[in-house]
Automatic annotation (TrEMBL):
Taxonomic source organism: Anabas testudineus (Climbing perch)
Domain of life of the organism encoding this protein: Eukaryota
Protein name according to UniProt: Peroxisomal multifunctional enzyme type 2
Record key words, sorted: Fatty acid metabolism, Isomerase, Lipid metabolism, Lyase, NAD, Oxidoreductase, Peroxisome
Compartment(s) where it occurs, according to its Swiss-Prot or TrEMBL record: Peroxisome
InterPro entries (alphabetical): HotDog_dom_sf (IPR029069), KR_dom (IPR057326), MaoC-like_dom (IPR002539), MFE-2_N (IPR054357), NAD(P)-bd_dom_sf (IPR036291), Peroxisomal_Beta-Oxidation (IPR051687), Sc_DH/Rdtase_CS (IPR020904), SCP2_sterol-bd_dom (IPR003033)
Gene3D superfamilies named in the record: 1.10.287.4290, Hotdog Thioesterase, NAD(P)-binding Rossmann-like Domain, SCP2 sterol-binding domain
Sequence similarity: Belongs to the short-chain dehydrogenases/reductases (SDR) family.
Main location: other
Gene giving rise to this polypeptide: HSD17B4
SUPFAM superfamilies: NAD(P)-binding Rossmann-fold domains, SCP-like, Thioesterase/thiol ester dehydrase-isomerase
Biochemical pathway: Lipid metabolism; fatty acid beta-oxidation
The Ketoreductase domain, residue ranges: 8-176
């Protein structure tokens, strides 16, 4: 089926001869109404005549076509467009074709005025008309001299490449209005080339060998946008940029030197496995990758543009169970208050004062502050030290988060976090790394986090898709929410939240955010996480942080600072299912989420620690009898002191110490003044499951049900204590 331009209006500049004339004739032949623009100058840009344009108009009309002439300079862009509007009522396509022979430096301004500024003025005059009619096609005519350079044509080359840059930006800005802009670099005979090309070569470079490409690019069926094409002699080729993989030549906190550049020069210039960026985001992504590589891995030679990890880069057997270097976090009331402000608390709400004023009688730390001490394990580059995780850390996305508290967080102190790779899963399109982080206040376990991170493109290594160690997200009940809270974030919410330790410029720097494809800096996912958690805390726990047990969320979409967060809640016993949306767009940002609360109780922590009503108390009583009977023998076999912290409903309920190192052994209930070699934290229910053989201790450990600190290898000697569990 032939391409028709019936109903379309085409403006061709420089259409008095050569390629421009061919464009005008071809469009008219296929039904377009054509504005034939030509100043009528000579090949050096001098003079003015209407003859060239008039002649082409006569040719078109003689064949039954529709055309009008225009003799204005392209610097009078409004006049050109007005001619089209007066004659045909609209403007659909603009073709820029006008060339100058080599000129001296004195003519720089003339060349730029006609080529670059002229293209700008004509296009600007037509732009709003094209937007209003939701259609437009623009063809810029560049030159090989602009693409490759040419001796003696500095002014001409600069102007022509400038037209390509203009076209590329117009393609981006016009896309949503169905305005497409492409660039061609033709080789064809014209008034400009007839004096410098041999006659036989000129004959093979006919303008009619260029026009078909232009007609296709201008047709409404063609969706090409932002392309660059060389064309001539019946051949058409598309050009694109190519970039070497490059190399990083600096290290974290080290100066960058010219010697490092010299030593890496061959790699920098090696186009093996070159990339082909097609947008400024792709082009500048290497800078983002470099920042991440230097910060997270700190390795010279890391490849900033490499594809995500290959299958051979992931080895779960090596990685799972590996510990990351421990991190410490020192803080006082200032950090607690700053975090509360960062997740939207305000003195406008009297209930918030206990989290904002250190002099308040019940001054407390928000429960979700528990993610802050642990995040250093993710941000400090610890994962790069784990064998079996040879991955591109710039492709790591924060997918899900679980936080569980074992007691209310202190408002000051020094916390230590120990991270372990719990599991690595193969999702095909990527890998999921489960990172368990236990945070201690001295020897006391305060909270547990599980970071679920997705590594784009790192799948396909043949691993398992699921894990019993993962804290799973859960869908909400299928009914109307029991409660809904709407809370506005401020324009400065991300700027405020980042002061709690997440310094990623994605959340503050507009230019950096643009590299990631965002119109503006986005809110931290863990900030939305904090908003949703405090909504639940107020709605169902009267802002009592001791009622908070755990929270699980899946991050779905980003939030822009200033948008309103709508938290929908469904109460199911002590579990509150939540879903968080952006109110303005109805987009879900947190899904599969829930908050677990401790039941309201008048029981004091002191009463809970006595261990009354716990099943485990009977087991420890039996262990105590065994020690009395066989203590000396057990001491010889074990030679260690074991501490046990038993919890009930997430709160400390009892403390036991089994001393099988000193004397003939002993059992202690409550606080223990001596040194403990290894401490186990487990719920009363899970302890009984382990003792009865229903729950494998190793599985309990990797699923987070059994937490261990100290000399973990001593856990192998538990069998001596717990064997013959039926009698226990």
């Amino acid at each position: 089926m032939s391409l028709s331009f019936e109903g379309r209006v085409v403006l061709v500049t420089g259409a008095g001869g050569g390629i421009g004339r061919e464009y005008a004739l071809a469009f008219a032949e296929r039904g377009a109404s054509v504005v034939v623009n030509d100043l009528g100058g000579d090949i050096k840009g001098g003079g003015k005549s209407s003859a060239a344009a008039d002649k082409v108009v006569e040719e078109i009309r003689a064949k039954g076509g529709k055309a009008v002439a225009n003799y204005d300079s392209v610097e009078d862009g409004e006049k050109l467009i007005q001619t089209a509007l007066d004659a045909f009522g609209r403007i659909g396509a603009i073709l820029r074709d006008r060339s100058f022979a080599r000129t001296s430096d004195v003519d720089w301004d003339i060349v730029h005025r006609v080529h670059l500024r002229g293209s700008f003025l004509v296009t600007r005059a037509a732009w709003n008309h094209m937007k209003n009619q939701n259609f437009g096609r623009i063809i810029m005519t560049a030159s090989a001299a602009g693409i490759y350079g040419n001796f003696g044509q500095a002014n001409y080359s600069a102007a022509k490449l400038g037209m390509l840059g203009l076209a590329n930006t117009l393609a981006i800005e016009g896309r949503k209005y169905n305005i497409h802009c492409n660039t061609i670099a033709p080789v064809a005979g014209s008034r400009l080339t007839e004096t410098v090309m041999p006659a036989d070569l000129l004959a093979s470079l006919k303008p009619e060998y260029v026009a078909p490409l232009v007609l296709w690019l201008c047709h409404d069926q063609c969706q090409e946008n932002g392309g660059l094409f060389e064309v001539g002699a019946g051949w058409i080729g598309k050009l694109r940029w190519e970039r070497s993989q490059g190399d990083i030549v600096r290290q974290k906190n080290q100066p960058m030197t010219p010697e490092a550049v010299r030593d890496k020069w061959d790699k920098i210039c090696d186009f093996t496995e070159a990339t082909k960026p097609v947008s400024i985001q792709e082009s500048l992504q290497s800078v983002v990758n470099v920042l991440s590589q230097v910060e997270l891995a700190g390795e010279v030679g890391a490849n900033p543009t490499a594809a995500s990890a290959s299958a051979s880069g992931i080895n779960p057997t090596e990685a799972v169970g590996k510990k990351l270097p421990p991190t410490t976090f020192s803080f006082d009331h200032t950090q607690c208050i700053l975090y509360a402000l960062g997740v939207g608390m305000s003195t406008k709400d009297p209930d918030h004062l206990r989290f904002l004023y250190e002099g308040h009688a019940d001054f407390s730390c928000l429960p979700t502050f528990g993610v802050i001490p642990s995040q250093a394990a993710m941000m400090g580059g610890g994962l790069s030290t784990v064998p079996g995780l040879n991955i591109d850390f710039t492709q790591v996305l924060h997918g899900e988060q679980y936080l569980e508290l074992y007691k209310p967080l202190p408002t000051s102190g020094k916390l230590t976090s120990e991270a372990t790779v719990a599991d690595v899963l193969d999702k095909g399109s990527g890998a999921i790394i489960l990172l368990d982080v236990n945070t201690y206040n001295g020897n006391e376990l305060v909270c547990y986090n599980q970071f679920s991170v997705f590594v784009v493109g790192a799948g396909g290594f043949g691993g398992r898709r699921t894990s019993e160690k993962a804290k799973t997200s859960l869908p909400p009940p299928r009914r109307t929410p029991d409660a809904v809270v709407i809370d506005s974030t401020t324009r400065d919410q991300a700027a405020l939240y980042r002061l709690s330790g997440d310094w990623n410029p994605l959340h503050i720097d507009p230019s950096f955010a643009a590299l990631g494809g965002f119109k503006a800096p986005i809110l931290h996912g863990l900030c939305s996480f904090g908003f949703a958690a405090r909504h639940v805390l107020k709605q169902y726990a009267d802002n009592d942080p001791s009622r908070f047990k755990a929270i699980k969320v899946r991050f779905v979409k980003p939030v822009m600072p200033g948008q309103s967060l709508q938290t929908e809640m469904w109460k199911e016993g002590n579990r509150i299912h939540i879903q968080c949306k952006v109110k303005e767009t109805d987009a879900v940002v947190l899904s599969g989420a829930y908050v677990d609360l401790h039941p309201a109780s008048n029981a004091s922590p002191e009463n809970l620690t006595q261990g009354g009503g716990l099943q485990s108390e009977l087991v420890f009583a039996e262990i105590g009898r065994r020690i009395k009977d066989l203590g000396s023998e057990m001491v010889k076999k074990v030679n260690a002191v074991f501490g046990w912290e038993i919890t009930k409903d997430g709160r400390p309920a009892a403390q036991w110490t089994i001393d099988l190192k000193n004397g003939s052994g002993s059992l202690h209930k409550g606080s223990y003044s001596g040194k403990v070699d290894v401490t186990f934290t487990v719920s009363d229910e899970d302890f009984m499951e382990v003792v009865q053989g229903k729950l494998n201790p190793q599985k309990a450990f990797f699923s987070g049900k059994l937490k261990v600190r100290g000399n973990i290898m001593l856990s192998q000697k538990l069998e001596v204590i717990l064997k013959d569990y039926a009698k226990l």
